[in-house]
Design a protein that fits this description.
Ureohydrolase_dom_sf; eight-stranded parallel sheet; metal-binding; metal ion binding; Ureohydrolase_Mn_BS; Arginase, Chain A; alpha/beta
Length: about 350
């Protein structure tokens, strides 16, 4: 990778910091004061190489504190222009952050973790997607920047990426980066109302048939809502990660029935209940190395921000899952690494 002459120590101008956030360490205000960056001057699309967000400082802080093998770290990717319908997911990361740290919600996860504990959840800012696009960077190079950003986070051991989308196109560069950084493939648990693999939005092709064919081609094991009651026991007792480098979880918020999450671009009635999703996540056996929560569209949400709260709850529980899997063996949490290598997709 070519080096850039620019040395930046700043978070993205689009990052949201709430005063209740536990990651308001002494470095934060200094970082914010330096964020007036001329992104148009950064003609090198791999500016992420010199833009450490606050990952380096957060990694150093956790290593100084000691006690955590790895820590879930929020990384926002406010990208929405690849959505096939509405582009509101680009505005999701700050809304999810607001809901995570909202004083009216429970700061304790269902697995007993306190999200105010820096070993359980940290924040390293956003990839400056819009600023990069304003520089004329095309989508392929933008995806490379996202991948490099994820790798930068993972370089700062014990940080592990918990990515806030954004539309679902961000999962590809994130999974690619995680796999390359870990040096091998990962199992993927993908919860979604749609397979997101058709190659045309308009036309008369059957995307359902094509999705199934693509799934068979790439070894994806698919479970549909019409057979969920039959498959419930299996899905709530998944064992993943055996023979690979870990498990990656991707949660598209539209996998939930719109009664629980109306703020999405592609509403699909008859989806999973929120408790269904939590049961799948809580009971999953495997070493979760990274995750994303995508396709929340604040422009479609209710006035009281119900879907934002739902997305925030998913993030909290995923953070607890990663922290549980990664805490030292002398704690009450143990890492489980077993099962078959495959991608499992649960769709509505």
């Amino acid at each position: 990778m070519s080096s850039s002459p620019y040395k930046i120590s700043a978070i993205s101008p689009t990052s949201h910091f709430n005063e209740q956030s536990p990651f308001q360490v002494s470095h934060t205000h200094r970082l914010q004061s330096q964020r007036n960056v001329n992104y148009r001057a950064l003609r090198n699309p791999l500016l992420a190489k010199t833009k450490l967000f606050s990952a380096k400082l957060k990694g150093e802080l956790l290593r100084a504190l000691g006690g955590a093998i790895a820590c879930p770290s929020l990384l926002g990717v406010p990208l929405g222009h690849n959505s096939s319908f509405l582009q509101g997911p680009a505005f999701a990361p700050p809304r999810i952050r607001e809901a995570i740290w909202c004083g009216s919600t429970n700061s304790t996860t269902e697995e007993g973790k306190q999200i105010t504990d820096p070993w359980v959840l940290m924040d390293v800012g956003d990839v400056p997607v819009q600023e990069i696009r304003d520089c004329g960077v095309d989508d392929d190079r933008l995806m490379n920047v996202i991948s490099e950003s994820v790798k930068l986070v993972m370089e700062e051991d014990p940080l592990r990426p918990l990515v806030l989308g954004g539309d679902h196109s961000i999962s590809f560069p994130v999974v690619r980066a995680v796999s390359e950084k870990l040096g091998g493939p990962v199992d993927i648990l993908h919860l979604d109302a749609h397979p997101d693999i058709y190659n045309a939005f308009e036309g008369n092709k059957s995307i359902t048939t094509e999705g199934r064919e693509q799934g068979k081609r790439f070894g994806v094991e698919q479970f549909e809502m019409r057979t969920f009651s039959r498959d419930r026991h299996l899905l709530e007792n998944l064992k993943l990660g055996g023979g690979v480098k870990g498990v990656y979880i991707s949660v598209d918020v539209d996998c939930l029935d719109p009664a629980f999450a109306p703020g999405v671009s592609h509403i699909e009635p008859g989806g999973l209940s929120f408790r269904d999703v939590l049961n799948i996540l809580h009971n999953l056996q495997g070493d979760v190395v990274a995750a994303d929560v995508v396709e929340f569209n604040p422009q479609r949400d209710t006035v009281d921000g119900m879907t934002a709260m739902v997305a925030a709850k998913l993030v909290k529980e995923l953070a607890a899952k990663i922290a549980n899997d990664k805490f030292p063996c002398n704690s009450s949490h143990q890492t489980c690494n077993s099962g078959a290598a495959a991608e499992k997709t649960i769709s509505a």
